[in-house]
Specification:
alpha/beta
């Protein structure tokens, strides 16, 4: 079973040499939606009722089959999209029909199976492997579209600005990701706003602050990133800002602690030779598998002592925050300082 990724799909679109079948799956709903639309627009316009056909998860598979097999009208090919077909729970007859359709998709059609709300474990799911194998018989491809990494998002923003005749330095693009979050749909919208406002020249951090929205989730998550980067002044300043915004102290605490829990899980998994998809399935991460990927990167600066000392401090802070006598601001400030101290001192910490 061959799985390809975004770059392979980009090449197909750029060359306009499309396969007969595409199976789009992965954690990024925006990418799956965008690429399904791009494939469709290369063949027909969405209002072309003869050559642009969309089917939902509860559609009759026979209707999908008929749409694929019918000749296009005044066109070389037709586009057929089937969303979230529940191959796991359908009857054997329906699954056989789907496999037959995938393996025999004619050159006059491009069939796209998009799995948006159905989570796919490509390595373990035997039925999924079966439909991918069927698609390959007709030259089809299964495309994994997971969340882009921060460097990929930075490149996307910089290139997007350049295409509109503006310049966005990588440091500014990174700043936008840090303040607005890593959701690709939101970032695309923020880039449009920036370019509409700037019109020409260079997009700066000041422009980002002036034009773009700072999400609470991204701001809280950024606090953890500042802690891991040992930036105490910036972390304490951001804590003040979050508390001024009336973000619940426990919400701030749970965000910090969740980052460390993710690291602990990945540390244990790494020692046992367990891979990220298995950890994600075990702890029900769903489409947030990228959190474990982030945790794996963060572990480069941690040994067991740093990690265990940090978790001890988090447990102490949790107990204090749940008591009625603790000053929540002080507890969070002390936690931030102690976590950074542990990162900086490492093996030299006698009593952190």
């Amino acid at each position: 079973m061959a799985i390809v990724f975004e770059e392979a799909l980009k090449k197909d679109l750029a060359s306009k040499e499309l396969s007969n079948v595409y199976i789009l799956f992965g954690t990024d709903g925006y990418l799956k939606k965008t690429y399904a639309e791009k494939i469709g627009r290369l063949i027909a316009e969405p209002d072309d009722v003869f050559n642009y056909c969309k089917f939902s998860s509860n559609s009759d598979l026979q209707e999908v089959y008929d749409a694929v097999m019918q000749f296009p009208f005044a066109s070389d090919r037709k586009f057929v999209l089937l969303d979230d077909f529940d191959f796991e729970h359908c009857s054997k007859n329906e699954l056989d029909k789907l496999n037959s359709l995938l393996s025999d998709t004619p050159d006059t059609a491009v069939l796209v199976l998009r799995f948006d709300n159905i989570e796919i474990d490509a390595k373990k799911n035997a039925k999924f492997k079966g439909i991918v194998a069927s698609a390959e018989k007709s030259g089809g491809k299964a495309v994994c579209l997971d969340h882009r990494t921060v460097p990929e998002l930075i490149k996307m923003l910089s290139n997007g600005a350049a295409k509109r005749g503006l310049k966005m330095d990588s440091s500014v693009a990174k700043y936008l990701v840090e303040t607005a979050g890593e959701d690709i749909n939101l970032l695309s919208n923020e880039l449009i706003k920036l370019c509409s406002y700037q019109k020409e020249g260079i997009i700066t951090k000041e422009t980002v602050d002036l034009v773009c929205s700072k999400t609470v989730e991204a701001s809280v998550y950024n606090l953890s990133k500042l802690i891991l980067a040992s930036k105490s002044t910036e972390a304490l300043s951001l804590l003040d800002e979050l508390l001024f915004m009336r973000i619940e102290p426990m919400s701030i605490f749970y965000n910090i602690s969740s980052v460390y829990v993710d690291m602990f899980r990945m540390y244990a998994a790494r020692n046992e030779g367990i891979k990220i998809p298995d950890v994600a399935q075990k702890f029900s991460y769903g489409n947030r598998k990228f959190l474990l990927e982030n945790a794996e990167r963060n572990l480069r600066n941690f040994d067991f002592k740093r990690l265990s000392l940090s978790l001890n401090e988090i447990i102490k802070a949790d107990s204090l925050l749940k008591s009625f006598r603790a000053d929540e601001r002080n507890v969070l400030e002390q936690l931030i300082v102690r976590l950074i101290y542990i990162i900086e001192k490492g093996e030299l910490v006698d009593k952190a």
